[in-house]
Amino acid sequence: MKKMMSGNEAIARGAYEAGCTVAAAYPGTPSTEILENIATYKGIYSEWAPNEKVAMEVACGASIAGSRSLCAMKHVGVNVAADPLFTIAYEGVNGGLIMVSADDPGMHSSQNEQDNRLFAPHAKVAMIEPSDSQEAKDFIKAAFEISEKFDTAILFRVTTRICHSKGLVELNEREEVGVKEYKKDVKKYVMIPGHARIKHYEVEERLAKLQEYSNNCPLNRIEWGDKKIGIITSGISYQYAKEVFGDKASYLKIGLSYPLPDKMIKKFAKTVDKVYVIEENEPYLENFVKALGIECIGKEFIPVCGELNPDIIRRALTKTEEKKLYSIDVKVPSRPPVLCPGCPHRGIFYAVSKYKDVIATSDIGCYTLGMMEPLNVADTVICMGAGFSAGIGFQKAAMMGGRKDKIFGFMGDSTFFHSGITGLIDAVYNNSPMVAVILDNSITAMTGHQENPGTGKTLMGEVAQVVDIEKIVKAVGIKEENIRIVDPYNLEQTEKAVKEAHEATEPFVIITKQPCALIKEVLKKRAGLHCKIDQDKCKKCKACIRTGCPAIAYKNGQVVIEKSMCNGCTLCKQVCKFDAIERVGE
Amino acid sequence: MTKSILFVGVGGQGIILASKILTEGLVKFGYDVKMSEVHGMAQRGGSVTTQVRFGEKVYSPLIGYGEADVLVAFEKVEAARWTNYLKEGGTMVINDYEIYSLPVLIGKEEYPQDVIEKISDKIEHVKVFKAAEIAESLGNIKVQNIVLLGALIKALGLENLDWASVIKDVLPEKMHEINIKAIEAGMNI
Ligand SMILES: Cc1ncc(C[n+]2csc(CCOP(=O)(O)OP(=O)(O)O)c2C)c(N)n1
């Protein structure tokens, strides 16, 4: 049977068919649907881990115990999980072990554009790259086999256009491989220096064997066409190259991309007149080809920055006439993503925006959007967890420089569990009088509503113990009198907490508690509610518009609230000095 | 020949569902199909696109500048934002519908009033209509995405295929009737 599947669905299907029994991930675009789909298959234990390092370690432990195991994450997640990756590379596996890295060329929803192919040689693990959904499924199976055969973890590298493009996939049955026997073997699984020194030699031997295999493996193949041009490529770039050159070129399509097939590349290059290397972002293949002493054309024409597409390749490498492009002479207004109408994050940002001396060290999640006009609450965003720890650094530097900046750090519930707790411990331990704001909307919202340790449910839909944020905050040593728990829909309460936090001289925590407005049950509960403007009372001061709610507009000389968008959070009503807004539909 | 279709609009307008129905239909009728969408910021009111390419054998899921045979805009300034993706001689299907972005709402930027006139001046094949009104007259404004899909299918010359059966394959039963009416309404514009 054939089915249209995204790359992520196909990876999940591949794991199922290959007999994978344990899978873990932390969500992150474009990887999230891999685990969401794995969770729909029987026979695989799957979980959301609090962060990528934990997910990778769960997969490592499961592999050693004998399971075919997989973990998945977005590219920046591999940075977080790099520590276990670099050492499991020495230990090798028992059951096959795959780490899926979903990179985001073009940064559709990411803070950087790192090319994680570079991790494979650095960590010394084998790497596999599919170039469509069918291969995503097939290569996962091959990856488990290679992992077990060569005793290595596999970096399975995909990109946004593999993850989120759909193509036809042939489905097969699951192969039941069970959970292998575990035999205690401290020289293999206990990486003390004495064992690791021996292991490092084994790793080098393993890589040499893998390189031999790479030269003969079906994942690397040559497609002969016209021999004037020979294209070396991998991943989605292969599709773009095929689209542009069709059979007017020959292709060396690489699926096992670390170690690279040196002999195959040499043979291919000898047979064609000219070698092009077509790849997105870093010159990973190109550097290798050049190191083999082969002349090739690559990054001098194909950009390092941004996502590729066939059009870019065509203009870079072929002589084509400039196409006529339509352009319309209107100034198109920008349409940036914004906090939704009724978003519970809005209240605290509104309250903090009134303080001009505040430095806001923010973090990654829906609440990053507090940075947008008209709220403008964010001075820094670096990576998950930095919302608190960069705040501490900022505060210490300000102190050293004799400045009086007041630091507010922001972080969502999922981000707090991910890597915020250690920052908060630092604030207590090293006594930073910063304000740590935890925006608890009871969900991992930005990535499309995943459960997390605070939501009381697991990925597999089971009821879980709620990990209590307030208790953590107290346990790390924030004093009772320095903690405020507020409903961000209640502006008076929120403003009072912000004022007290602003005056505090010790580490201070505000927890805002109100579930995301898009959670199904919330939508249902608030379905009838909305706010309405009494046009007779409205003085058109636009204070309500300055909350940045996209449901409120100034149209044809009137301020109006779009009923279908509003959920009756009443923030606008609370900022109206003329009592012109009421909530209806109770 | 491979055909390329670009859907553009705003998060929450049902673009992904419309392109899914199109894709499933094209597969059912024997084409090789690739579809690409970008998730992530979609629900936060940002500009959203999906791309569908179909033919005998399709490699790239992506469309470059000047390569879309049909551009379907669910919101009218989005049509202008993405115009440079339309192929010379290609068709634009435009929903005469406005969604103000936040910079417009807070008065930092202006929503242009004459977008459709300006597009029609430059581009020969433009089909403009109010999908929201048609959907409302059918009983649910939410099916405006399917009305637009119907108009797209007509623009592709694929209206003779059995799209009602595709709707039945993809959607739950209680939604069949109104969506079939919507797709037909779109094909009859
Ligand atoms: C290391 C890393 N992993 C994953 C992501 C993807 N990501 C961005 S925001 C986010 C979750 C934010 O959830 P939460 O902190 O609860 O805030 P919310 O979106 O609910 O406001 C995730 C998983 C990332 N940017 N970096």
From TrEMBL, chain A:
<protein>
    <recommendedName>
        <fullName>Indolepyruvate oxidoreductase subunit IorA</fullName>
        <ecNumber>1.2.7.8</ecNumber>
    </recommendedName>
</protein>
<keyword id="KW-0560">Oxidoreductase</keyword>
<comment type="subunit">
    <text>Heterodimer of the IorA and IorB subunits.</text>
</comment>
<dbReference type="InterPro" id="IPR017721">
    <property type="entry name" value="IorA"/>
</dbReference>
<feature type="binding site">
    <location>
        <position position="538"/>
    </location>
    <ligand>
        <name>[4Fe-4S] cluster 1</name>
    </ligand>
</feature>
<feature type="binding site">
    <location>
        <position position="544"/>
    </location>
    <ligand>
        <name>[4Fe-4S] cluster 1</name>
    </ligand>
</feature>
<dbReference type="InterPro" id="IPR045025">
    <property type="entry name" value="HACL1-like"/>
</dbReference>
<keyword id="KW-0813">Transport</keyword>
<dbReference type="InterPro" id="IPR017896">
    <property type="entry name" value="4Fe4S_Fe-S-bd"/>
</dbReference>
<dbReference type="GO" id="GO:0051539">
    <property type="term" value="F:4 iron, 4 sulfur cluster binding"/>
</dbReference>
<dbReference type="InterPro" id="IPR009014">
    <property type="entry name" value="Transketo_C/PFOR_II"/>
</dbReference>
<dbReference type="InterPro" id="IPR029061">
    <property type="entry name" value="THDP-binding"/>
</dbReference>
<dbReference type="Pfam" id="PF01855">
    <property type="entry name" value="POR_N"/>
</dbReference>
<dbReference type="GO" id="GO:0043805">
    <property type="term" value="F:indolepyruvate ferredoxin oxidoreductase activity"/>
</dbReference>
<feature type="binding site">
    <location>
        <position position="572"/>
    </location>
    <ligand>
        <name>[4Fe-4S] cluster 2</name>
    </ligand>
</feature>
<dbReference type="InterPro" id="IPR011766">
    <property type="entry name" value="TPP_enzyme_TPP-bd"/>
</dbReference>
<feature type="binding site">
    <location>
        <position position="541"/>
    </location>
    <ligand>
        <name>[4Fe-4S] cluster 1</name>
    </ligand>
</feature>
<feature type="domain" description="4Fe-4S ferredoxin-type">
    <location>
        <begin position="529"/>
        <end position="555"/>
    </location>
</feature>
<keyword id="KW-0004">4Fe-4S</keyword>
<feature type="binding site">
    <location>
        <position position="576"/>
    </location>
    <ligand>
        <name>[4Fe-4S] cluster 1</name>
    </ligand>
</feature>
<feature type="binding site">
    <location>
        <position position="569"/>
    </location>
    <ligand>
        <name>[4Fe-4S] cluster 2</name>
    </ligand>
</feature>
<keyword id="KW-0479">Metal-binding</keyword>
UniProtKB/TrEMBL annotation, chain B:
<dbReference type="Pfam" id="PF01558">
    <property type="entry name" value="POR"/>
</dbReference>
<protein>
    <submittedName>
        <fullName>Indolepyruvate oxidoreductase</fullName>
        <ecNumber>1.2.7.8</ecNumber>
    </submittedName>
</protein>
<dbReference type="InterPro" id="IPR052198">
    <property type="entry name" value="IorB_Oxidoreductase"/>
</dbReference>
<keyword id="KW-0670">Pyruvate</keyword>
<keyword id="KW-0560">Oxidoreductase</keyword>
<feature type="domain" description="Pyruvate/ketoisovalerate oxidoreductase catalytic">
    <location>
        <begin position="11"/>
        <end position="187"/>
    </location>
</feature>
<dbReference type="InterPro" id="IPR019752">
    <property type="entry name" value="Pyrv/ketoisovalerate_OxRed_cat"/>
</dbReference>
<dbReference type="InterPro" id="IPR002869">
    <property type="entry name" value="Pyrv_flavodox_OxRed_cen"/>
</dbReference>
<dbReference type="GO" id="GO:0043805">
    <property type="term" value="F:indolepyruvate ferredoxin oxidoreductase activity"/>
</dbReference>
